[in-house]
Every structure is written in C-alpha cells, then in structure tokens.
Design goal:
The longest helix is centred in the N-terminal third of the chain and has 25 residues, at 2-26. The chain starts with a helix and ends in a 10-residue tail after the last strand. The protein has 347 residues and is mostly helical. It has helices spanning 2-26, 30-33, 45-65, 95-99, 103-107, 132-140, 155-158, 182-187, 191-196, 232-237, 252-256, 279-282; strands at residues 249-250, 336-337. It contains twelve helices and two strands; from the N terminus they run ααααααααααβααβ. The chain is elongated. A two-stranded antiparallel sheet has the order 1-2.
Length: 347
C-alpha cells in the first residue's frame, strides 16, 4: 500500500511539472507583447551618421555645381569618378574642403569688381593663382605622413611646386600616378632628362618598364636628388643586386657612388657611361701601363689618318690599351671580384 501511494504521488508530481512546462512554453513573452515599433533593432547609428554626412557633403557640393557643371571647359564633375568623389566614405572631401568656404565668391564682395575669387585658387585663369604653400597645405591637411614626411624643405617645395602642379584631382585618371603616363608629367619640367632617354644607351623608360618614381620620391627625401634611398648606390642596388657585393676585392669608385662612372637617364656610350674607356678610367688611373708610348694622339690609328708605315712618331695602329673595350679587355670585373686571384679585377 505504501509503495502504491508513493508511485501515485510521483505520477501526480510529474503531471504537474509537465503542465507547468507547457504553460510556460505557450505563454507569450513580454517582448512578443510589445508592438513591432518598440522591438529592439541593431544599433546602426554609425551607418546613419555616415549616410547623413554623405548627404550633407553633396548638399555643400551642390552650392558649387549649380554653376560649375558639365559645361565647364575642364572636367569639373569628373571628380566623382575618382576616390575624392566616393560618397560612401566619410573621409571624402567636398568642394569647400579644398577651395575654402569662399563666402565672398558666393555672396559677392563690395570691394571687388565682379565676382570675388574663391578662398583657394588651384588653377591660373580668371583669378590669380594662390600661393604654392597655401595650395599644398590644403592637400597635406589630409595626405599626411608616409612618403610625404619630407615634403617641407624638399626640392620641389623649394622650387615653388605645389601638389596640383603634378596631380590632377578632377581628372578621371591622374597621369602622374599611372606608370604609362607618369614620365610625360615629369618631363614637362625635366627636359634634359627627357633628351637623355632618347640616347643610345638608356634605362627602359620609354618602354614603361622603369619610371621616375622607381628611383625618386617626388614628395621629398633624405637622400640626394630626391632618391628613395639614402644613397645612390642603395637605390641602384634595388634592381642591380648582383653589383651589391660584398666582394673580396672591391673597386672603390663602384662601391662609393655608381654615378662616378654611369649617368642614370641615358648616354651615347654603352652601358650608360659618362665617358669612353680608357678616358673614363684615366680620370682616376693616370696614364697607360706603357707610359713610354702615350696613345692620346693616335687612338684612332689608320682610321684617324696616321700613316700606313709605323714608326716611333707615326704608329699605324692604336695602342692596345685603347682598342676594343680598352681597360676592360683585361680588367673585366670592374664592380668587384671574389676570386682569390682577382686583386686587379681580372677575374
């Protein structure tokens, strides 16, 4: 009887628990009782603020584009095809970010005949061009650091060059940032270097395999000639790694500065040499090996008009130190040698 009573009581308790669980499951939650408008949603405040910022930026642009539209001779509205026109990015500038609020340009200035100039003028035309430092500061307010760290005091800044003299912000494609067209922009000022690239021996600049920014940092550098590295040799070694060494027997001028012998933009003497051997070598190494028979006057031999019969004063053939590759007929390892027998750079 006791066992039966216990089993019966257990069955009753199990039934009550099941009933309570079913009630709890079927009962609507407090959140379900709330109206749909009061349901909690993900916090999209950042996205909303970005969207609002983009709309506000477009409204500020509209102040300018109501006059400066597609009828302009220069592609003003093409800026929306560039990174400066991406409205999905909260960092994207508007017209006033670069040109200033220009209140007098918009509302007029009683002290100025006609329409007053914008606060910052980047292109010479109807209005006087703003100072180069003012124009550059507008760009550098966003484009800080990295490759532009050494802009202040750099050669371009000292020569009154501003960012927009090379970069075209409103153009769909900025030529100076495209490897195919970069040299065209640089050569508008650096005309001597343009001429050098058309000589017999050059780097493949015209072919587009080497461009100015491969060696130079136009925004300023701690090295000479605005080079990307601290020295000429370090810059050259980025491509010509086989000349780096270290060598058992070094050739001091080659280790010191590549431009002691080479000119980087182009030469009529291959390979990019400043002068022909043996004369290039004689800038450091005085005289030929056989100093009793100088060859300065008879380098050309018969072709230079010397007689066919050789004698002490009129040799028919040039000195062997001056024919072929001259000094490099023997001293072939001019950049350095690792041969135990290469003290004279013979091997």
């Amino acid at each position: 009887m006791v066992v039966c009573a216990f089993i019966a009581s257990m069955g009753t308790a199990t039934g009550l628990l099941a009933a309570e669980g079913q009630t709890a499951t079927e009962a609507p939650s407090a959140e379900q009782n709330q109206p749909a408008s009061e349901n909690k949603l993900p916090d999209l405040s950042m996205e909303a603020s970005k969207s609002k910022s983009a709309q506000e930026s477009l409204k500020k642009d509209a102040i300018c584009t109501r006059c400066h539209d597609e009828s302009e001779t220069t592609p003003i509205l093409a800026i929306y095809q560039t990174k400066h026109g991406v409205r999905g990015d909260s960092r994207t500038p508007n017209c006033q970010t670069c040109h200033g609020e220009s209140e007098k340009h918009l509302k007029g200035d009683p002290n100025v005949k006609g329409r007053a100039a914008p606060d910052v003028v980047f292109k010479k035309g109807a209005y006087a061009l703003s100072d180069d430092k003012v124009r550059a500061s507008q760009c550098l307010s966003c484009h800080k650091g990295a490759n532009r760290t050494n802009w202040d005091g750099g050669q371009h800044q000292n020569n009154q060059i501003a960012c927009n003299d090379c970069h075209k912000v409103h153009a769909p494609v900025d030529k100076v940032r495209d490897r195919k067209t970069q040299t065209e922009v640089c050569f508008t000022c650096h005309k001597d270097q343009r001429a050098d690239t058309h000589k017999i021996s050059t780097h493949p600049i015209d072919a587009g395999k080497v461009v100015c920014s491969d060696c130079h940092n136009p925004h300023g550098s701690t090295g000479p000639k605005m080079l990307k590295k601290a020295t000429v040799t370090e810059t050259c070694y980025t491509c010509h790694a086989e000349k780096r060494g270290p060598f058992l027997w070094e050739h001091q001028p080659a280790t010191e500065d590549c431009t002691n012998c080479h000119t980087p933009h182009g030469s009529n003497i291959t390979p990019l040499l400043k002068s022909r051997p043996p004369f290039l070598c004689q800038e450091c190494h005085d005289g030929p090996h056989n100093s009793q028979a100088s060859y300065g006057a008879n380098v050309a031999g018969i072709q230079g008009g010397n007689g066919l019969i050789a004698n002490a004063t009129n040799p028919a053939s040039p000195n062997t130190n001056a024919v072929g590759r001259a000094c490099m007929n023997c001293h072939v390892m001019v950049h350095g040698s690792n041969s135990p027998a290469g003290a004279f750079l013979h091997r």
